[in-house]
Amino acid sequence: MGSKSNISAVKRPALSGRYVFAAASILLVGAALVLGRGAIAESAVKIPPPAADVTTAQGSSETAVFAGGCFWGIQAVFQHTRGVTQAVSGYAGGEKNTASYETVSTGSTGHAESVQVTYDPKVISYGKLLQVYFSVAHDPTQLNHQFPDTGTQYRSAVFYKDAQQKQVTDAYIAQLNGARVYKDKIVTQVTPLKAFYAAENYHQDYATIHPDQPYIATYDLPKLGNLKTLFPDLYRDKPVLVAQANEKK
Q1: Residue 167's domain spans which residues?
Q2: DSSP per-residue letters across 40-69
Q3: Catalytic residues
Q4: Digit-coded pLDDT (tens) for 102-153
């Protein structure tokens, strides 16, 4: 398990998916939440769109897989992004037999906490998803680290499914580094997608179900505020949830 702050220590549910918070604990983090929201809300960076984009998308459904810290926040960002039809928290980069939360949390599996984004390319392009990912969903200059979460399972990575996704992603990273839009160099890995494994049910839709959980309130809700501010044409109030998609099956 990577090193974590006190807030991060209460971040994750037990396997039962349940929390027991003492009233005193909630009071103690109250002041921190106010400061945390402001500090993190200011961390989003307004960046230009990619100069090149995927042009081979066909039909009404495409997928992309992104990693960058805890998957709760990245899932929430894309669930609130217009044109996304589903965003599933899961694992990518390792083998099937190690694709479970407790095993991935050891940092020794090769997996990264990831989100598989299914989207309609007629509504939103792959390049626009990348713009949201790099500016709102996480900090791409952090190496194996996002806010209090540390370890290779929290690395910044784009898992591309084909040559054009790789080409567009590589070109965009070079474009952003060349424009010096960040103080530090982007460290995002661009890696071929071998497979994506959905995470346990209790991780799905977590930010929507638990908006008052200290970790969510401090680190993830500000991302939604930044999405609404920086991409008002893409932001939607009502998220597309995994639970709703499962009910329709």
Answers
A1: 6-248
A2: HHTT----PPPSS------TT-EEEEEEES
A3: 70
A4: 999 999 999 999 999 999 999 999 999 999 999 999 999 999 999 999 999 9
